[in-house]
Amino acid sequence: MDAFKNLFRKKFTEDLDIKDADFDKLGIKLKKEIDAIFGRSLAIRELDSGSDNSTEIEMVNLTTPHYDIERFGVTFVASPRHADVIAITGAVTRNMELAVRKTYEATPGPKFVVAVGDDACGKGIFNGSYAVLGGADKVLPVDLYIPGNPPTPKEILKGLLALMQKIRKNRSGSERHSPHIVAV
Amino acid sequence: MDALIGELSQASNGLIKPGGVRQGQGGVYVPVLENKLNEALEMLSGKGFELVNLFGVEGFEKKGFTLIYTLEKKGYADLIFITVSLAGSSADSVAAIFPSASWYERGISDGFGITFNNSFDSRRLFLHEAYPEGFHPLLKSFKNNAKLGSAASLPVSPKKGAAQEYAYKEIEGEGVYVIPVGPVHAGIIEPGHFRFSVIGETIYALEIRMFYKHRGVEKLAEGKPPSECVKIAESISGDETVANSVAFCSAVEDISSIKVPDRALYLRSLLLEMERIYSHLGDMAGMAIDVAFAAGASPFFVLREEVLRQNEALTGSRFMKGTVSIGGLTKETPDSALKSLGSFLEVFSKRFSAAVSGIHSSTSTIDRFDTTGVINKELLSPLHITGPAARASGSGVDTRVDHPYGIYSDLQPEVKTKQNGDVLSRFDTKAAEIDDSIRIIKELLRDMPKGSIQAAPVGKIKDGHAGIVMEAPRGQSFHWVMIRGGVVYRYAIRTPSFCNWQAIEHAVIGNIVPDFPLINKSLNLSYAGTDL
Questions:
Q1: Is residue B277 classed exposed, middle or buried when 0-12, 13-18 and 19+ CB atoms within 10 A define those classes?
Q2: pLDDT band per the 50, 70, 90 thresholds, residue A183
Q3: Which alpha helices (H) appear in chain A, and where do they start and end?
Q4: Of the candidates B237, B502, B333, the residue with the CA atom closest to the CA atom of residue B248
Q5: Torsions phi, psi for A181 (to 5 deg)
Q6: Rounded to a whole number, what is the distance in Å from the CA of B240 to chain A's nearest CA?
Q7: Does pLDDT of B488 surpass 50?
Q8: Measured between alpha carbons, how far is B202 from B269 in angstroms, rounded to an integer?
Q9: In angstroms, rounded to a whole number, what is the distance separating the alpha carbons of residues B437 and A56?
Q10: What residues does each domain of chain B span?
């Protein structure tokens, strides 16, 4: 009987009063780039190498109703084998170095690495500690830096858009891979 | 205070001499002779004292190592610090008296090279195989420097060896197989290792290994002026930013007798409760996601996002970073932000209860939550489990009430407990705590004093030491700060997750593997806060 009740009762959705025109515009731009370059889907594998977790929370927020990044074609995937992009946070602790390298090696090419947050960008306060290597580029070839402590969901989205634009430029231009710092 | 000293001297049969006891910031310091330590701790354990933290200091009151055993007992606002000066670099393990001591002792071994006799677990804790044996970062003889290269260049003590592979417990038997999970996990989550021994679908045993995110927080603070260490305290764990920075600043304020103005105390408490609310909202959303009830999780995510935006309006940062400082706050909170917070909270409660009934009215969700991941009440004291995880298993502990700080002596929180200790109890406990935090914030807004948000010029920071306990969203947080020569000499930290992680090895037994993410999320412990 519960099944019939489910069919006929009020639907469990609501209109959210949270239109952010700026964010939507950026998202639609990103979707167009992803459609053109990545065959309509961008798979991101998130990799925490020693952050304080606030960047992770902001990335989870990208999947929540206010931002809902999946409508632009971006998904966060469980396995590096399914990923196009590795989004790495944290300054790479010595204890995580091996796991970071293995995750990168497990990701099939073509692949890109985005350093998210000040720690991963090499500007964090843990630089100089015996326990960290000092940034993602000490271990991996980084294609894009998104600074912030932590970067907001909008800043992360802007960063992904910049990555798409950089890939587009490199495809048509030279093979030189120069990291593009996002001016936020 | 006197009652505490009285109880100690009465019971101790001469182990503790009233003359040797002295009052310090945050508690009573009791020196005990090395060879009397076990006796003293047995006695205290028998009297209902619980181990809050155990840490080492080199050169505390004289050369050599001192171990400080921090204890608490319900009914006493003050802590007890049992200090033991070691003649050499070994001590007796007290894990047989206080099981939670095991991890602390392993950490002290890693940090200082002190060995513990009769310990039942002497594996390295926060230094994994990447570090050479014989490297002890907390020794004063080792200094951080920016030129540190590969691990091979780290200085080691003479008694070194090749880094040994970590030996996990082995469970053997018919049908037992091992599922190792992590450090990199499937979702957007911090790294840690879980090694399950499973029979069929049912978990027979679980061993966890943390400290993949060990960044060297305690060492980083050494030698820095306290004002530079506030940012370090904020970075311990992003969603405990306010709890940890307030704890650090309070310790420094206690040492230098800095009086924080009332308005700043009220605002700090307001931010602490905002942090509690958004932390619990995330947990509740996560629990629904982990049983694949995305529609049920969405209202919690929506509310959390709105709370983060309120945080930004109040402080300029979604995580309230850069707001707390020694003596008060870094900047004034605009009255308009306080006013809009008030209107937000009016609407919040109704939407929040609708979201909670959305979960309660879903029979399939309740079926997953109910009786899953039970933490027995008997585990709480030996492992020093605190926070909603303890309150959901029937314990009435709440550091805001047991050791009042800030405005909590005047504005007492209502301690919410449940009895079953399962996922559903933890979900309901967090929901009740959010309601209580809203009540507290409303009273703070109503009675918000006017005036300065920063103490009169702080001046030179005095030398001394202080211990602080606070109720972070996940449970009891402990910070001990020692200032010498105007800079931080030692900063010992223990966030609630360090203790609470050990409960998960017991909570999963008898549950099926697919319920593990749910049990994990119902505790929502911080990996960064544990690993430091």
A1: buried
A2: very low
A3: 2-8, 21-38, 54-62, 97-106, 153-172
A4: B237
A5: -80, 130
A6: 9
A7: yes
A8: 43
A9: 25
A10: 2-140, 220-494
In the block, tokens 């181990």 appear at B51
- Residue numbers in B near A16 (CB within 8 A): 302
Rg (CA), chain B: 23
Report yes or no on A1 lying in a domain.
no
Number of domains making up chain A: 1
Q: Nearest by CB to B216, from A64, A78, A130: name it.
A: A130
Q: Is residue A14 part of a domain?
A: no
In this structure, which topology does domain B2-140 adopt according to CATH?
Answer: Beta Polymerase; domain 2 (3.30.460)
Taking a contact as any Cβ pair under 8 Å apart, which residues of chain A between 151 and 180 contact chain B?
A: 152
Instruction: Nearest by CB to B188, from A66, A76, A91: name it.
Output: A76
Structure-model confidence comparison of residues B233 and B6, the more confident one: B233
- CB contact at 8 A, B141 and B222: no
Cβ neighbours of residue B257 closer than 8 Å, sequence gap 6 or more: B462
What ipTM does this complex have?
Answer: 0.93
Decide if pLDDT at B389 tops 50: yes
Whether residue A141 lies inside any domain: the answer is: yes
Read off the tokens for B154. 């780290």
Q: A82 lies in a domain?
A: yes
- Burial of A8 from C-beta contacts in 10 A (0-12 / 13-18 / 19+): exposed
Can you name the residues that pair with B464 across neighbouring β-strands? B483
Return the number of other C-beta atoms located less than 10 Å from residue B21's C-beta. Answer: 17
Q: Considering the entire predicted model, what is its pTM? A: 0.93
CA dihedral of residues B35, B37, B38, B44 (deg, nearest 10): 150
Q: What CATH number should be reported for the domain holding residue A115?
A: 3.40.50.12280
- Enclosing domain of residue A150: 21-181
| Least confident range of B38-47, B228-237, B369-378, B493-502 | B38-47
Question: B220-494 belongs to which CATH class?
Answer: mainly alpha
